């Protein structure tokens, strides 16, 4: 699976930047991951949709489905079974998604009922993408 990570703005929090870099590095060993940080502004959602064109779009959204780690891995496996080879993970700015962008998503994913700062949400989501990849590869990273 090729992951295209598209996020609003470059991370300003040092710990988030370090963690994001770490999980992107780890993902390289299990497939391909690329990241695009889009400058916030009036056309933010439009630019993010353009970058994710032709991929399966997952938007982090408070209205989305919540998954256990194993359930998320099963969802990724199902995508692979359907011959989906490119998946985009979109992490918006603090004001969330507009209705049109939400409609163009293939999956809305909620990390839980709490609200997370968007850089922290990106870090947590990347860890879960990595965890799913290790589960599917049969690696011992995840423990039940």
Structure description:
This protein has 144 residues and is an alpha/beta fold. It has one domain: Alpha/beta knot. It is built from five helices and five strands; from the N terminus they run βαβαβαβαβα. The chain has helices at 14-28, 44-51, 69-81, 99-103, 118-137, and strands at residues 2-8, 32-38, 56-65, 86-91, 107-109. A five-stranded parallel β-sheet has the order 2-1-4-3-5. Strand 3, helix 3 and strand 4 (86-91) form a beta-alpha-beta unit. The longest helix has 20 residues, at 118-137.
What's the tally of helices? Answer: 5
Characterize the main sheet.
5 strands, parallel
The fraction of residues assigned to DSSP E strands is 15-25%
CATH architecture: 3-Layer(aba) Sandwich
Structural class: alpha/beta
Secondary structure: helix percent: 40-55%
Mean pLDDT: 95
What is the domain tally? 1
Keyword list:
five-stranded parallel sheet, 144 residues, single chain, Alpha/beta knot, alpha/beta, 23% strand
Give a nutshell description of this structure.
The chain has 144 residues and is an alpha/beta fold. The protein has helices at residues 14-28, 44-51, 69-81, 99-103, 118-137; strands at 2-8, 32-38, 56-65, 86-91, 107-109. It is 42% helix and 23% strand.
């Amino acid at each position: 699976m090729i992951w295209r990570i598209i996020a609003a703005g470059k991370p300003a929090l040092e710990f988030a930047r370090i963690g994001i870099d770490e999980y992107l590095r780890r993902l390289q060993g299990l497939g391909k991951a690329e990241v695009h940080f889009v400058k916030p502004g009036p056309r933010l959602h439009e630019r993010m949709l353009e970058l994710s064109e032709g991929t399966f779009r997952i938007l982090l959204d408070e209205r989305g489905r919540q998954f256990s780690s194993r359930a998320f891995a099963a969802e990724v496996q199902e995508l692979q079974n359907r011959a989906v080879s490119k998946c985009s993970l979109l992490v918006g700015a603090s004001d969330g998604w507009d209705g049109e962008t939400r409609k163009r998503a293939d999956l809305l994913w909620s990390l839980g009922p709490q609200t997370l700062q968007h850089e922290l949400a990106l870090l947590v989501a990347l860890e879960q993408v990595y965890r799913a990849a290790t589960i599917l590869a049969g690696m011992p990273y995840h423990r039940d």
